[in-house]
Amino acid sequence: MTTPTNHELQDLLDNNKRWAADTETREPGFFSRLLKQQTPQYLWIGCADSRVPANELVDLLPGELFVHRNVANVVVHSDLNALSVMQFAVDHLKVKHIIVVGHSNCGGVKAALYDLRVGLVENWIRHVQDVRHMHSEWLYTVPEPQRVDALCELNVLEQARNACHTTVVQDAWGRGQEVVVHGWVYGLHNGLLEDLALTAGKAEDVDPAYRRALANVKRRYAPQD
């Protein structure tokens, strides 16, 4: 891999100028309005993979989608970064939807599945290895070429369920605030998002939604006769 030169970085700045000019031409006053308010309805919790640009995938402009990303779209109760983003989104921005989004052929999930040595991030993806261990009996019945994507989807379900169990979401539901948690997966091979049908808008929805979504994943990856 070559190191970016000053010329290549200037290309990025030039691209930004063209983007800003094009945006202002299409929507005069866009940046002035954006400066005054931020009213997204959605919080996207996704993978840091550069091939999964949140706003572009759902065709939303800046200001319309609040985004948090990390390796393998993990939501854990010890991650104050993710929890702070969630609390700001729910308590202050009043987002109505939290969408946990994984993607096919995820490098972090692949490393967790195969115990690959990838440095410091190994400590982070141990959360994904926990998902692997939890579902190992079923996971290793999945044909090997499909196993990474199967674990990607299992990981979405577990992280979405974790999001439901955070104090941020539980407190919002407790005070009657409208917040719905979703689990989606993005296909790198076709550019399409798929709803994994883990959708919960109140505490009593979580376990039934999780069980239905898990059953759907298992049916989809069942070995074909």
UniProtKB/TrEMBL annotation:
UniProt cross-references to InterPro entries, sorted A to Z: Carbonic_anhydrase (IPR001765), Carbonic_anhydrase_CS (IPR015892), Carbonic_anhydrase_sf (IPR036874)
UniProtKB keywords: Lyase, Metal-binding, Zinc
Gene3D superfamilies xrefs: Carbonic anhydrase (3.40.1050.10)
Domain of life of the organism encoding this protein: Bacteria
Assigned EC number: 4.2.1.1
Residue spans crossing the bilayer: none
Names of the cofactor(s): Zn(2+)
Reactions that this protein is recorded to catalyse: hydrogencarbonate + H(+) = CO2 + H2O
Family: Belongs to the beta-class carbonic anhydrase family.
Function as written in the Swiss-Prot or TrEMBL entry: Reversible hydration of carbon dioxide.
Protein name (record): Carbonic anhydrase
